[in-house]
UniProtKB/TrEMBL annotation:
It comes from the Bacteria. Residues 60-187 form the Double-GTPase domain. This is Double-GTPase 1 domain-containing protein. It comes from Stieleria marina. InterPro entries: DO-GTPase1 (IPR045530). It holds the Pfam family DO-GTPase1.
């Protein structure tokens, strides 16, 4: 009997099929809901194996409260309503969970709850991107997990604490580094240093040890996205200049390390505010939803491939 684990995949019509983990490539046990190595959902790995074809990982990283959950959920919602020129659709009901969580919260004039640090509680986005060309339509599968900001911070400080993050970053052909534009403007150095640590972690996972000009390998495409720009118009006016002025360390590191990198600004709420309860606890809430710049980083990354 083969020592390779078997997974029962009804969708393929095959009673027993070898299913590698979509994240770390380890064989999955048929009785497991999650990969025992990195805790990637078996449902995702099964869908990826059944579809085949080009599978592109795109990581969305950032500090806690940078807006990763809202960004990813709304990104899929915008893609699902996009034009034929650039459209996305979830590959399974499993992939709609994040979109549903975000859209439902925003409709209630709330932002979704923080992502738990437990890896088995993370939601994964898996959608097919369709791009109209002159004579044909190109299709690629996009996979992106909603990592918790606290987990990202722990992983970059001690690599291996969250194996899924390391494996996904290594597999990613494109990555987005989300930075809270308000904190960047008002707190400066802390956000700049964290962004540089993230960029350094990405470079390490991809083995980029020399300056970009001296390498033949271009490495992954990096989009630095300043979020919550409804309250920071200067980031929208010129994201690259905003980065150079407010995150000079990260700006210079990316310039030297990544051949393909670009700066973007995005916002979900047309306007938002902070409410305080009787105990002084503050909660940020959107007054109305007016997405801006959400799709552009993804279109740029996909266009680099």
């Amino acid at each position: 009997m083969s020592t390779t684990a078997k997974y029962r995949d009804v969708s393929l019509g095959d009673p027993e099929t070898d299913i590698p983990c979509a994240c770390c490539d380890q064989p999955l046990l048929s009785t497991s809901d999650y990969c025992p190595t990195c805790e990637t959902p078996t449902t995702l790995s099964s869908t990826v194996a059944a579809r085949g074809g080009r599978q592109d990982f795109i990581s969305v990283l950032g500090a806690s409260n940078a807006g990763k959950t809202v960004y990813l959920g709304l990104l899929l919602d915008i893609l699902s309503k996009g034009s034929d020129a650039f459209r996305g659709s979830a590959t399974s009901a499993f992939s709609i969970d994040l979109q549903e969580q975000v859209v439902t919260a925003l409709e209630r004039k709330m932002f979704p709850e923080k992502t738990p640090t437990e890896a088995d509680a993370w939601k994964w986005l898996h959608c097919q991107i369709s791009m109209a060309k002159k004579k044909s339509t190109e299709h690629i599968d996009l996979i992106s997990p909603d990592f918790a900001g606290e987990a990202i911070a722990m992983e970059i400080n001690q690599s291996g604490m969250y194996p899924a993050i390391g494996h996904v970053v290594q597999k990613s052909t494109g990555l987005m580094i989300l930075c809270d534009s308000l904190r960047v403007r008002d707190e400066g150095s802390a956000e700049d240093l964290f962004g540089m640590k993230l960029a350094s972690y990405i470079a390490g996972q991809h083995g980029l040890t020399t300056d970009s000009a001296a390498r033949k390998d271009a490495g992954p495409s990096i989009a630095i996205v300043f979020t919550k720009c409804d309250g920071c118009p200067e980031a929208i006016e010129d994201p690259a200049r905003f980065a150079a002025n407010n995150t000079p360390r990260m700006f210079e590191y990316c310039r030297r390390t990544f051949t393909n990198h670009n700066f973007f600004a995005a916002s979900v709420a047309g306007s938002s505010g902070t409410l305080a309860d009787s105990n002084g606890r503050q909660t940020r809430m959107p007054f109305h939803i007016q997405p801006q710049g959400v799709l552009e980083p993804l279109r740029w990354i996909v266009g680099q491939g």
